[in-house]
Amino acid sequence: MESFVINHKSPLPLHIQVEAMLRNLIELPEYQNGKMFPNEVHIAKKLGISRNTVRQATNKLVYERLLVRKKGVGTRVAKNNITTRLNKWTSFTHEMDEKGVSFKNYTVKVSRVFPDKEIQQLFKIADGIKVIKLERLRGLEKGPIVYFISYFHPATGLTEKEDYSQPLYEKLEKEHHITVAVSKEGISAILANKKLAAKLNISEGDPILFRKRVVCDPGDRPIEYNLGYYRADSFTYTIDIAKD
Amino acid sequence: MESFVINHKSPLPLHIQVEAMLRNLIELPEYQNGKMFPNEVHIAKKLGISRNTVRQATNKLVYERLLVRKKGVGTRVAKNNITTRLNKWTSFTHEMDEKGVSFKNYTVKVSRVFPDKEIQQLFKIADGIKVIKLERLRGLEKGPIVYFISYFHPATGLTEKEDYSQPLYEKLEKEHHITVAVSKEGISAILANKKLAAKLNISEGDPILFRKRVVCDPGDRPIEYNLGYYRADSFTYTIDIAKD
DNA sequence: ATTTATACTTTGTATGAACATTTAAACATT
DNA sequence: AATGTTTAAATGTTCATACAAAGTATAAAT
């Protein structure tokens, strides 16, 4: 904070710059134990900007529950912001390994395709750029449980010739120096159509747990877009959530 | 919107009043298909308040991803789906009609019952002890969205005569000095049977997102056992997970 | 007909100011 | 010692204003 200066020439808005600074501040050990943050007026004066701009930046972090404001008192880092997050976020392979279940690939198919609009916008890539598409049918000995479709951002550097039978996120981290940090998920229930029923070895109209997932890097840039279709009779999504 | 007026005498801040109004606006069918919202300047002028105050209200809804703003274009309702965000983990009531309105109970039924084996073991209580059972059908104006069944641990001290139309976790915290800390959840997909179909106003065989939830206190002792049956067509479970 | 320039609309950014509300701490009173 | 009272500090609310940036629509030019 001491060394931080506002750059009025930067293309980045001031409140974004301040937000970044605050995120760094939050990481400092001295604020982790509930010590008060520097107050708004002070920050504003220090950086030579308006208090409103400081508030605009702080608001975002408050929304994210990283900071807690209290009228008449001040602002401090949220106590258990680490445990707020889901404890063990791991790849599906890992998930299952821990439970002592051996998971296997039934089919793996890799291709390079033109992504649809949604993915194109998510990845912020231009027309005519192909992405790696990975389809996997996975399950236990007795039969398939989930059908995955993944699309990877070109920046990952993944190619068609990759060995996709290994755990993916570890590979990305080790070989491509990409750290995955956040997974945004949407879960819903759908009915199996003919194609899915055939793949998952169930009947048309059977329930399927559908999970759409966006895996991002620490800068919140999307790395992978993933669709998962789970046999509802043999898969339950379990979560531990801590409040506060 | 037309009939809405700002109350400058109200103890509620203006931006909260506006936020409530916007939440109602969002529910209106005319905005459900992506039609543009009235623009900020217009709303401000119409309500006789500052544009900044309108923005303050909209910010929250934008953050909750109920509204999408686009520079140079306008603001519109995000999608057709109601989403609940797990990183802001609160009671369902709190989640939905915190400051706004629009979420309502269709039916509330309280009873004292002998729990089944699973609940008995979870609560670690002896045979012959009854627990409070709470059934709720909740949703929006246009129809029910979720059917809840909750069982409460006897130690909560909850009785049949409680007012269950208020937010539950706050009540527990304030009146019974019980803090809820962790929620363990299992999510799956099932098909609507005749009973559920009737309750949720859908057809038999339609997909349902089924959530089983155990809410615990900080000592990890179970407080509530909760089953939730969500209409899959109008509810998606969204999660942001940080890897750590 | 297509491109280009322009004006307009809408959200985004930023400032400065004023007052309200809440809290904690210091102080005074009983 | 317990209880009020004042005061200072911090966030909360709200306003008015100005300009920037992005997208849309229209008019002009080619």
Top keywords for this entry?
homodimer; 244 residues; alpha+beta; Arc Repressor Mutant, subunit A; Chorismate lyase; 2 domains; six-stranded antiparallel sheet; two-stranded antiparallel sheet; 30% strand; DNA-binding
Write the layout of secondary structure elements.
The structure is a homodimer of 244-residue chains.
Chain A: H1 14-27, H2 40-47, H3 51-63, E1 67-70, E2 74-77, H4 92-98, E3 104-113, H5 117-123, E4 131-140, E5 143-152, H6 168-175, E6 182-191, H7 194-200, E7 207-216, E8 222-231, E9 237-242
Antiparallel strand pairs in A: 1-2, 3-4, 4-5, 5-8, 6-7, 7-8
Helix pairs in contact in A: 1-3, 2-3
The structure holds a DNA duplex (30 and 30 nucleotides).
Q: What is the arithmetic mean of pLDDT of chain A?
A: 78
Number of domains of chain A: 2
Distance between the termini of chain A: 26 Å
What summary fits the major beta sheet of chain A? 6 strands, antiparallel
- Quaternary state reads homodimer
Low-confidence segments of chain A, ≥5 residues, pLDDT <50?
80-100
Give the helix/strand class of chain A. Answer: alpha+beta
**Name of the CATH homologous superfamily of the largest domain in chain A:** Chorismate lyase-like
Global geometry of chain A: elongated
Show the largest interface.
A-B, 42 and 39 residues
Q: Could you name the CATH class of the largest domain in chain A?
A: Alpha Beta
- Could you name the CATH topology of the largest domain in chain A? Chorismate lyase
Radius of gyration computed on alpha carbons of chain A: 22 Å
The helix content of chain A, as a percent range, equals 25-40%
The proportion of residues in beta strands of chain A is 25-35%
Number of strand segments of chain A: 9
Number of helices of chain A: 7
* Strand order in the sheet with the most strands of chain A: 3-4-5-8-7-6
Q: What is the succession of H and E elements of chain A?
A: HHHEEHEHEEHEHEEE
What's the CATH architecture name of the largest domain in chain A?
3-Layer(aba) Sandwich
